[in-house]
Amino acid sequence: MLRFGALVVGLLAAFPAMGQEMKAEEARRFVVGKLFTYNCFEGTKGTGRINHDGSVAGTIQFQGSGPVRYAVLPANTLRAKGEQVCASVKGLPFEPCFNLQKTSQESFRGSVNGMGFAACEFRRRGGRAEFANAVAKPYQAASAQPDR
């Protein structure tokens, strides 16, 4: 769970960059319920969705190699705290908050406050079918290989 907590921190981490800063309510309208792929500064990548209750569901591949894992975080993991979006993850000794920058009508990046070097880029994708396909692919590939 601690590694997935790091995902949430990394998932929303990015360089403070040019773009329109999003406050909590705007970020909610832009992100909640929509599917995004993400690529982070150190190679971690995946696909995920933030739900209306602040829960998170998606895939993650740490540092761009190894198995793609499916993970879910419970309701209220992400929530508004004043004008910021913050995370509450069991196992993390602090509650990180994020700076979010809208970079286009389909993408954004964010930074953990005080950690602008840790960058992730997010791009909006299709709906449920694309998400199901992204989650299923790693398992299909693994099951197609013969046992040795």
Essential attributes:
single chain, 148 residues, alpha+beta, Lipocalin, 10-stranded antiparallel β-sheet
Notes on the structure:
With 148 residues, this protein is of the alpha+beta class. The chain has a single domain (2-131), classed as Lipocalin (Beta Barrel). 23% of the residues lie in helices and 38% in strands. Strands 1, 2, 3, 4, 5, 6, 7, 8, 9 and 10 form a ten-stranded antiparallel sheet that branches. A hairpin with a 4-residue loop joins strand 2 (35-40) and strand 3. It is globular, with a radius of gyration of 15 Å.
The helix/strand series, from N terminus to C terminus, equals HEHEEEEEEEEEH
Average pLDDT score: 80
Q: Which stretches are low in confidence, meaning pLDDT under 50 for 5 or more residues running?
A: 11-17, 138-148
Structural class: alpha+beta
Distance between the termini: 31 Å
Query: Biggest β-sheet: count, sense, barrel?
Result: 10 strands, antiparallel
Strand content: 35-45%
CATH topology: Lipocalin
How many beta-strand runs? 10
CATH class: Mainly Beta
Described by the principal axes of the CA atoms, the overall outline is globular
CATH-defined architecture? Beta Barrel
Helix content: 10-25%
Overall number of structural domains: 1
Indicate the radius of gyration in whole angstroms.
15 Å
Number of helices: 3
